[in-house]
Write a structure and sequence with these properties.
Order of helices and strands: EEHHEEEEEEHEEEHHHEEHHHHHHHHH
Bound molecules: adenosine monophosphate, magnesium ion
Structural class: alpha+beta
Low-confidence stretches: none
Oligomer: single chain
Number of domains: 3
Strand content: 5-15%
């Protein structure tokens, strides 16, 4: 199957017209293909080369259409930095339709009814970041929207400076957000709210279709999914940066990559988003913000489900799901396979020690994956050795309870502790080259993003340490 042979349908358009804006993409000038992800293509059943599909660029650019494609932008609301905005919507994203359980969406394809003061565009810099990070999140085993292809163009787009416009073709089983429910609740369109809930059940939770209390049960699943995804982020050192409720997907996957960052040296309250002056979306705050956002969703869904029961569900499910998933991922990262509740304390104390040692979070785990009792192999990458030294004593004693051999433990740890992390400094290098029309690094990064724990001997330069000046920097939201 070729990409350009796909046939799409648009079940979302069966909802009331207030839910969407039927709009065509506005093409960019002189579009050209920068990168494709065959791995994402497999989700659509594409087995022919995406590079050789001559229609791919035009479909991304909106000058060709896939069969059955009826393009539209979605309407939603959202709490942005704690404040409610009653109407947002896809200001620069245009949906193409659905196939194989995946909804295809262009990002950066021009104005829609919801563009407000924006230009409907996405610049090359932010598109490269979103394209690569979508695939990297999948490579890390964390639920996310995917990216199939990226095009560049000659179209000038105004940001702090003039930049070039680009478009990413994104895939997701759903593009409905918490803010979609907030829109209908705030507009008091309660029949439409229920229709949306039924749509979401059909799209993302079909096993609940004929269940009693299906909306409450759906809410419970959203709580669990969201908690697990955020636990995934904290376990790999990922800071999303803009956890507004319009950026929270209804099936709990990572969505809308903006000024995100991975931790360099471990810093619990690191804030990647330059405009987040209060640190609302700091690294460690993400756990509590997930809960807060789910509270907003419970309010938005309250016309169709018992609110008190929903709050109880939230309390029962959220922290348990979060803690279990975090513990599961972190014990694997540490190579601890025998069940021991005391490991929760070992993990907590590790985080404090990492912060006091000024040590790169992910590099620490990669080094630990070859740890043989020689502490200097770890301590040599820390600025301050003392805090971590005594923690390593505790770790040594804990390892004695394990039954696996050291060699087996190392193999298992190397398979879960990534060598390649899309840190901002490395993404920036790829962006600088791309601005000079060299896209080789974008394509190399795609390879390591999809299999970050493998060695990739020819691509070692992509995991070089972060230069001091680039450590834990903040990023501008403009994209
Ligand atoms: P974000 O924080 O990127 O998720 O964006 C928040 C809202 O602003 C969403 O409704 C976006 O669609 C919209 N938006 C962001 N950038 C633009 C742009 N350049 N043009 C139009 N709308 C935009
Ligand atoms: Mg968004």
């Amino acid at each position: 199957m070729k990409f350009s042979q796909l046939q799409l349908t648009s079940p979302y358009l069966k909802l009331e017209p207030l839910s969407f804006d039927k709009v065509d993409p506005t093409p960019l000038d002189n579009p050209f293909l920068i990168s494709v992800s065959p791995d994402a293509g497999m989700l659509l059943g594409i087995d022919e080369s995406l590079w050789e599909d001559e229609k791919l660029v035009n479909i991304l650019n909106g000058t060709d259409k896939l069969e059955g494609s009826d393009t539209f932008a979605m309407c939603y609301a959202g709490h942005q930095f704690g404040y409610f905005v009653p109407r947002l919507g896809d200001g620069r994203a245009i949906n193409l339709g659905e196939v194989n359980g995946q909804n295809l969406q262009l990002k950066g394809s021009g104005l829609t009814l919801y563009s407000r003061q924006g230009d409907g565009r996405a610049v090359l810099r932010s598109s490269i970041r979103e394209y690569l990070m979508s695939e990297a999140m999948h490579g890390l085993g964390i639920k996310t929207t995917r990216a199939l292809a990226l095009i560049g163009s000659d179209t000038d787009v105004a940001r702090e400076q003039w930049e070039k416009g680009a478009i990413v073709l994104r895939l997701s089983p759903t593009w409905v957000r918490f803010g979609s429910f907030e829109f209908f609740n705030a507009s008091r369109e309660l029949k439409m709210l229920q229709e949306l809930a039924d749509y979401v059940i059909a799209e993302s939770f079909p096993h609940l279709t004929d269940e009693e209390n299906c909306y409450l049960k759906m809410y419970a699943e959203i709580v669990k999914n969201t908690a697990e995804t955020i636990a995934g982020w904290l376990s790999v050192g990922f800071n999303h940066g803009v956890m507004n409720t319009d950026n929270m997907s209804i099936d709990g996957r990572t969505i809308d990559y903006g000024p995100f960052a991975f931790l360099d040296d471990y810093k619990a309250y690191y804030v990647c988003n330059h405009t987040d002056t209060d640190g609302r979306y700091s690294f460690t705050s993400q756990k509590g913000i997930g809960y807060w956002n789910l509270e907003r969703l419970a309010v938005a869904m309250s016309p169709i489900m018992n609110h008190e029961a929903a709050v109880e569900v939230l309390d029962e499910v959220y922290y348990t799901a979060y803690d279990n998933e975090y513990f599961r991922r972190m014990t694997k990262r540490l190579g601890l396979y025998e069940v021991d509740e005391k490991d929760r304390h070992l993990i907590d104390s590790m985080l404090g020690r990492l912060e006091n040692s000024s040590i790169d979070f992910n590099l620490f785990f990669r080094k630990l994956s070859r740890y043989d009792g020689d502490k200097s192999s770890i301590l040599d990458i820390a600025v301050y050795r003392k805090p971590l030294e005594s923690w390593l004593d505790d770790y040594d004693s804990r390892l004695k309870k394990e039954t696996l051999s050291q060699e087996e433990r190392h193999q298992k740890m190397l398979a879960v502790n990534p060598k390649y992390i899309l840190k901002n400094h490395i993404l920036q290098e790829a962006i600088d080259l791309a601005k000079a029309d060299d896209f080789s690094m974008v394509n190399d990064l795609l390879k390591v993003a999809l299999s970050p724990c493998e060695e990739h001997e020819d691509l070692e330069h992509l995991c070089k340490p972060t230069p001091q000046r680039a450590k834990n920097i903040k990023l501008s939201c403009s994209s």
